[in-house]
Amino acid sequence: MTKKSTDNKSHLRTWSFGRILELETQLFDDQAVDEATLVERDRKIAEKIGKQGESPSPNRSLLSWLKIIREEKVQSLTFEELALQKAPRKAALTLGIVYFFIGLTLSWNLLRYNGEQAINVSAFIGVIILIQALAAATSLILLLLGLLKPKVTDLSIGSEFAKFFLTSLTPIIARVAAFSLSAEKREDLLAKVGRFRSRLWIYKDPLRWKFFQLAQSLGMAFNLGAILALATAVTFSDRAFGWQTSLDITPEAVHSCITTLSLPWSWALPETKGFPDLLQIQGSQIVLKDGILSLNTADLTSWWPFLILSTIVYGFFPRLILNGLAHLNLKKCLRSIDIENAETKRVLRRLNAHQFAFTTDNSVSAPKSNPATSENPNAYRNSPPTSCQAWIASTLETQFSSKKIKEILFQELGAVETNELRDELVDSREQLKQSLSDNQSSVCFVLEAWLPPLEETKQLVRNAREVLAPKTSIHIALIGHKHPSLHPNFEQWKRIAHQLSDPYLTVSLHEV
Amino acid sequence: MTPPLFAIIGHPNEGKSSVVSTLTENDSIAISSTPGETTRSNTYDAKAQGKTIISFVDTPGFQNPTRCLSWLKENELSGAAAAKEFINRFSADSQFHHDCELMTPLAQGAGVIFVADASRPLSKVDLQEMEILRLLGLPRAAIINSKSESQQNLEQWKDAFRKNFNAIRVFNAHNANFTERIGLLETLKTIEQDWSPALVAAIQAINEDWGERAQRSAEIISGLLEESLVFTQSKLIANESQSASSQKKLKESYREGLIKLEKRAWADMKNLYRHHKLSIDFDQQSILNEDLFSEKTWQAMGLTQSQLAIAASTIGAGIGLSVDAALSGLSFGVFTAAGALFGGGAALLKGQELSKMKVNHVPLGGLKLTIGPNRNEQFPFILLDRALLFHRVASNWAHAKQENTLEIDSNKKKGDSSNWSDKDRKLAARFFAAIKSQRQDKLTQLYPEFNQLITNVL
Ligand SMILES: Nc1nc2c(ncn2[C@@H]2O[C@H](COP(=O)(O)OP(=O)(O)OP(=O)(O)O)[C@@H](O)[C@H]2O)c(=O)[nH]1
Ligand SMILES: [Mg+2]
């Protein structure tokens, strides 16, 4: 989809899988880089984007950002890194080739002919055509269910497995890790798994279509292999086909069945050309004790057009159509994908910080947010939402004036409405439910930076997510007196944010 | 009598494991700056004279103080029974795993040692945790384990502690030495009458054990001196032509041999004080990181030339080396400054002249090279000072401090022996002379005296 021929503009409007992969790789790499460096890098990029005169829609900004980073990177990419970039495509291609050869060898074996015994078409029809037709039908049902009710395809085996892998496995990993790893390694591992989960969640719709499409492509490859085997067999050698069954089925029944199956092409290739007639069917019935010599040669070769045509029509075509549908759906998904989440918002915020600085236009809201970015490189922040409810741990007020706290929150989040984080909110989900009015665009918990995250604070965040809409930003602001001991806590909070697998959760540290 | 059981309780990452590590002299307990390092309760025994005298339980930190407290209040339970009930109620809930673990020793009626870093602000959760412990009503003491110097919040903490605990004690897990450990046990004595006799016995056992360790260290040090002072190396060679290179090699191996003896003695002392992680490779700055024969070592340790002369005079030996004689009366500090002028002087101190090389003809042909035993008067004092310094480190090193940086001001600090009385130094010199002369009668007479001297200075 992102061929070189595609013009630059559409490049910058829609996401493709390749771009998403690139974005995710970049976001992942950025995690290891300190905020100050990122701010500086993105300031330069924002300048470049500014020159191109792009309007800063989030999608555009991110795509341009990615493009500039890519262009800069290309010069310094090593051979291995380049190879790695192409890996997913190569893997898919390899898989396709494998499927093609499976189809080819399987049919080739079914078409083995030793000159004494006619090839049994029932086996070929059963193993290749019938199974492929069934597979195509299943895909179609899944597709229809998926179109009607997107939830249903979640129940497919693949995603069940994924769910088990991601949801049930996490506590198991946690248990095992607790025994054998140091806290730091264990928490890091869980953070990685958690982050992976949340990224998957963001892309779950296009991913589903991508996998569906891949499955169809593999089916096509398989059928192509089978067709090629058939065509080669009949073109380059003389093969006798016959049919046999131990069931009590008369040639007449077989004939009516074959005629029905051949309906799609009978208008172009009639009986005896596109499929065998009754006489040919009678003539090619294999009776084991008689051997091949008792059968008529013309009857024996009358089967192959039927085999090829039905493989194409019942095996290949449905897959082709499903593939096309999947492709269309995928495109639709990608076009409407909501790319804004905590991590991309950080990028946007860095890009916008610059734009605020550049525009002298007074109408830009919350211009205060820009100097904060360079002032506090520890912030792991969010773009300023329009309204925010802040819940402040009571101890903080014994340490800092409420004016100071509000000032910090304003820099981080814009205008906030402040409340006390009462014990009941931690203690009971019901209380929290009543207190968090869900018309808020975001919620912020303001906590003591000198305390490590506790299970009950984690639960508070989980509960808040249950109460709030899935994409409402939740922010954790840690405030404390400047001291090195705050950093392990902040690091742990960042890990926890990943572990909670919540793509709309952010953490920031404010040292006073 | 079953040894008293204490659970070390607190918020995550406050230094609970550090406290247990230091109190039980166990440096294998996992300590890290990442909160949640300890995930289950583990019992560690403080041992003296081969017996367990007190058991400490290292626990994970509270994970749900708010929820725990509200449950306790709701159910109006107290004592060990409350802890038991808590475990029954929450053991199936993985979110309460740590809380259940920390309640386990409390359900067994353990005493509570609450650990808090009082350099940070007192928070609501801290008060909740204290309240939980107060409601449980077990005998309890609070330990102030400050991770940094800040005193700003101390009074606030002390206030809260006074309301909730029977005793309070400052105890810095990473710096506490023997005396402070005993001090903490003395505090524990006061929180529960019933445990007092056991703790008195424990303190006595620890003191006795400590005395035994000093004695044993003195033996190790005397042993090291005895072995080093009679240590020789020899080698057979075919003819004169090999002599030069072989002499060089032999000198090398002689030095290595002495270094090895010293290392072994140090390792013995380290084991004696139950250090397994403390490595002999000290920080770059440390004087103990210096080689036994390095110039720095010889500048910082041992006796000054005049002290050496006086000590040596008692055994009728001259200082022996002409350059030393020329310099006698100068302190080492002056000597260092003068080192550059004298050129070879410093090199000489480094021990090239530790011993003369002897070359003997062997009856069956060939030559025998022998080096040693050591004749340098300064050498045993250097060895002694180093051992004493190492002993001081090993015996005072808190087991929670699992890194091995050592800060000793090598500019000011002389080795111990230069601060001894003349009488003591003379005794040492006589002991060294007896070893060198291999006079058994003198040795048996001097050994106990010298040992007593070392035990006293340790
Ligand atoms: N400077 C200093 N640091 C300390 C002291 N005690 C503990 N620490 C540091 O505090 C951190 C936590 O120490 P731990 O002993 O592991 O704390 P804990 O309470 O067992 O922690 P969890 O097992 O995670 O609940 C480590 O980085 C220690 O090095 C101390 O007395 N002085
Ligand atoms: Mg611990």
Explain what you see.
The complex is a heterodimer of chains A (512) and B (458). Chain A has a five-stranded parallel beta sheet, sandwiched between helices. Chain A has a two-stranded parallel sheet with strand order 1-2. With 512 residues, chain A is of the alpha/beta class. Chain A contains 22 helices and seven strands. Chain A folds into three domains: 1-76, no CATH class; 88-336, no CATH class; 381-512, Rossmann fold, CATH 3.40.50. Chain B is an alpha/beta fold and 458 residues long. Chain B has two domains: 5-191, Rossmann fold (3-Layer(aba) Sandwich); 214-457, no CATH class. In chain B, the strands form two sheets. A six-stranded mixed beta sheet of chain B has the order 2-3-1-4-5-6, sandwiched between helices. The radius of gyration of chain B is 29 Å and the shape is elongated. At the A-B interface, helix 8, helix 17, helix 19, helix 21 and helix 22 of A face helix 2 of B. Residues 10, 12-18, 31-33, 35-38, 60-61, 145, 147, 172-174 of chain B line the site of guanosine-5'-triphosphate.
Question: What's the quick description here?
Answer:
Chain A is built from 22 helices and 7 strands.
Present the secondary structure layout.
The complex is a heterodimer of chains A (512) and B (458).
Chain A: H1 8-11, H2 17-30, H3 35-51, H4 58-76, H5 79-110, E1 119-120, H6 121-148, H7 157-180, H8 183-202, H9 204-236, E2 241-242, H10 251-261, H11 263-266, H12 278-283, H13 297-301, H14 304-335, H15 342-358, H16 369-375, E3 388-393, H17 394-399, H18 402-413, E4 416-421, H19 423-427, H20 429-435, E5 442-448, H21 455-467, E6 473-480, H22 486-499, E7 505-511
Chain B: E1 5-10, H1 16-23, E2 42-48, E3 51-58, H2 65-75, H3 79-90, H4 97-107, E4 111-116, H5 124-136, E5 140-144, H6 154-164, E6 167-170, H7 178-191, H8 196-229, E7 233-237, H9 243-272, H10 295-300, H11 305-313, H12 322-327, H13 332-342, H14 344-352, E8 357-361, E9 367-371, H15 378-396, H16 422-437, H17 440-457
Parallel strand pairs in B: 1-3, 1-4, 4-5, 5-6
Antiparallel strand pairs in B: 2-3, 7-9, 8-9
Helix pairs in contact in B: 2-5, 3-4, 7-8, 8-9, 8-15, 8-17, 9-15, 11-16, 16-17
Residues 16-17, 37-38, 58 of chain B line the site of magnesium ion (MG).
